[in-house]
Amino acid sequence: MLDSKTPDGTAMFTSDRAVCPAHAPADHPRIPPQKVGVLLANLGTPDGYDYWSMRRYLNEFLSDRRVIDYSPWLWQPLLQLVILTKRPFTSGANYKTIWNHAKGESPLATITKDQTAKIAETMKARHGDDVMVDYCMRYGNPSTASKVRRMIQEGCQKILFFPLYPQYAGATSATANDEFFRSLRSEKWQPAVRTVPAYFDDPAYIEALAQSVERTWEAMDDKPDLLVTSYHGVPQRYLTEGDPYHCQCQKTTRLLKERLGWADDQIITTFQSLFGPEEWLRPYTVEEVARQAKAGKKKIAVIAPAFSADCIETLEEINEEIRESFEEAGGEQFTYISCLNDDDAHIAALTKVIDENLKGWLD
Length: 363
Prior knowledge:
By secondary structure, this protein is of the alpha/beta class.
């Protein structure tokens, strides 16, 4: 039901439950009942692995000043004339190896939809129609702006925005929040909003990680010699400039080790996805797994605690490139532990974080 439109013809409210406010004249636009929106946000995904889909996605991603903060006068010519001429081919080929061909989408899109559906089911059981749960992507589709607009159309006068990054980084959490607030600039009736902080040390999140490791260990007759926690890297410079990401990653690993009851030498922290000429956070995963193999650690497992869902960096980079580096250095047994994805313990942890951040709005 489309009740009222903005000057450009866009529907303001679409809810079937929209009613005319009490004491208002009969011709007053109908307004849906108030509800609270929970908008999950992940990094993003290309629409396809063909050249132009990849180019659009990479252009949006690599043009973000939170991701690449070099001067546009220097960066954009290099990006447009060199990087985006070649990289869409190689990135597209990598995406093709992991693509969900049955659904015509990337694994990240599939998993984020599954996570959203499970969280929505839980919230509906607790709050009925008073809470609306949806998801968006920082880059690509569905865009943040489109989902903010839809929530407002559905009567969400309060929105909790949840970047699905356990550890905070300017290049992930901050840019997701930036895009969310930019989306609000075009809304005539802005909702009240909150953003969810990083949950890198939340006990339920640590418990979900620990359970995933324990399940892997229990299923193996020949246990790994070492657990490698591989986090997405950022330039070393970001740490000295005040970004807390490195410290939060280290704390996640420490808390996981303590929960598992392991010794210090059974688990290490590394960083992957190096890009550009700068020094990034070390040790680099691709180099460290090879060093460990040469040092006698022939059986390792790798987990990626910074990713809430499996994606190109885990399914292709870790499970293919990093695995290859380990095996070429003499490693014999490489085990990748999947991201938490839509595992029940993970959904419970995310729902707990949501409930804590909704306090006062639903009480």
